[in-house]
């Protein structure tokens, strides 16, 4: 088998092919202008780490509730992306808003190098 190396001359976009659903896979933090790809472990722990936390998470997702607003209200605006994120994706340009995105709309994670 032959090996070869490629050097790019411009930024390279590699799509992971993974669709992310708002309030399920990611949360948009407008103040920080980032998208936080959710960590189930961190979210579960933040909500108490018990059976009641599991039920709360399931009810929110099932009923299409706004997870970001729920967490923001519950933690009195002290919620940060790092508390719930597996990874944090900075945004360039305007972020999703209720007018431009519904809870069912999906985004694709991308990696820029």
Report what the structure shows.
The chain has 113 residues and is an alpha+beta fold. It has four helices and five strands. The longest helix has 12 residues, at 51-62. The mean pLDDT is 77.
Write the element-wise H/E pattern from the N-terminal end onward.
EEEHHHHEE
Helix count, DSSP H or I runs of 4 or more residues? 4
* Apparent shape: elongated
Derived structural class: alpha+beta
Unreliable sequence segments: none
Helical percent range?
Answer: 25-40%
Rounded to the nearest angstrom, the radius of gyration is 17 Å
Count of strand segments: 5
Terminal Cα span: 27 Å
Strand composition percent:
25-35%
Q: In which order are the strands of the major sheet placed?
A: 2-3-4
What attributes does this structure have?
three-stranded antiparallel β-sheet, 113 residues, two-stranded antiparallel sheet, alpha+beta
Summarize the structure.
The chain is an alpha+beta fold.
List the helices and strands and how they pair.
Elements: E1 13-21, E2 26-29, E3 34-38, H1 40-46, H2 51-62, H3 67-74, H4 81-84, E4 85-90, E5 106-112
Antiparallel strand pairs: 1-5, 2-3, 3-4
């Amino acid at each position: 088998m032959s090996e070869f190396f490629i050097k790019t001359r411009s930024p390279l976009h590699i799509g992971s092919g993974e669709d992310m659903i708002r309030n399920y896979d990611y949360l948009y933090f407008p103040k920080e202008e980032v998208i936080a790809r959710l960590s189930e472990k961190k979210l579960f722990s933040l909500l108490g780490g018990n059976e009641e936390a599991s039920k709360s998470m399931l009810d929110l997702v099932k009923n299409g509730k706004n997870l970001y607003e729920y967490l923001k209200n519950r933690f009195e605006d002290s919620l940060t992306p790092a508390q719930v994120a597996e990874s944090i994706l900075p945004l360039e340009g305007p972020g999703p808003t209720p007018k431009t995105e519904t809870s069912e709309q999906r985004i694709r994670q991308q990696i820029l190098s």
